[in-house]
Specification:
Strand content: under 5%
Order of helices and strands: HHHHHHHHHHH
Largest sheet: none
Oligomer: single chain
Helix content: 55-70%
Number of domains: 1
Shape: globular
Number of helices: 11
Distance between the termini: 19 Å
Amino acid sequence: MNFLSHYYFDRNTTDCYFTLGTVLPDLLKNADKSIVLHPEKLLHADSAVNSMIAGWNKHLLVDKFFHSSEFFLYHSHTLKNLLTPAVAGSPVKPFFLGHIAIELILDNLLLTTGEVEVDDFYAHLDSCHESVIAAFLDFAEMKNSPVFFKFYESFKSSRYLTTYVNLDKVTYALKRICMRVWHDPFTPEHELAMTEVVLAYRESILNSFMSIYAEIDQKMKLV
């Protein structure tokens, strides 16, 4: 799941460090895809660092439930098939596009239907002290934390997730993710065709998309 989908499950928490923990694996991956941390079983003397670890573990569990769900398997496969002709001639693998597209569409739907408030999400991140984040990264044995902090400050200041209300920005996000693997992956024609697919698919699941959040919520209660 993407940032706002992870935030949805704990949108009412008052613990900014837990909120940060729930999106930190993806933030680190965005900062540098070579970063690999495993703080899952660590215990720190600082409760704020432990909140980040707890949030990290929540992220892993939510992703596990999501990626094994019939919802994800069905919609990522369907989007793969729909996007295949839209990106004909592109080096991007359609199954990769289908996977990322359903996650971005879900974030767009959460935002545009008022299920989450993106300003609240950023307020949580803004409330976290850099010293606590640095303590977490050091405890998890990250070797080059300045790489993360440079990206993290840009992520917060740009407020990029607010643009997810626009479907063309969802396509742009798809493009940016693909550019981590493939250089200049899409033509303008590809991007236009992708936007048309994403828009139509968003409309097709508008009235049913919340079922996956209810399903994961129910599974979380059984853990």
